[in-house]
Amino acid sequence: MSETGAGSPFDVDGTPQIFPSDRSPSHERGICKFFFSKPYLIAFSFLITFLIGVLQVTNKNNDASSFATHPANMRVFIIATVIYSFAFATTLSLPPDTSSSLLAGFVAFFSGALSAISVIWMFLPLWLGWLISVMWFLLLVMVGCDLYRYSFQILYQKCKEKLLDTLNRFMEHNLTEQQHVPV
Fold this sequence. Notes:
The chain has about 180 residues and is mainly α. The chain is built from six helices and no strands.
């Protein structure tokens, strides 16, 4: 049985945390630190480039372009690649281990995967393409739910800090006014 608690990458019920609290040590930041790290995102760059090369070689003798034979796949590929490029650039520009960096890594990871899947789909039988797409979507939903929960944890922490700060200022202000009032 694994440990659970504030610094653990697991919830109380033992399920792994995708986006654990910011108070946990950086080496225990959860699954997201592993999957959304820069080496994985760089690997998508090479995979996408490789798949485009394979697509060009397989369509070399065809008269029709991939945009004519697989228009939906190519549109998804272009849109996902543009999103991946911007999200990956954002990930590189942000300091690591921040909420913004995790969010940009999330977007880059899933858009890069969608980009690769949309090209791979052209080489596979239809049923296998659907199977891979469904698995990608289920992983997206699972991680997206944890991202949603994590974002509300961060929002709650920020609101709580602001509220406590405002209350402390109000109490200090009242104390200083009471000291200046003549009795």
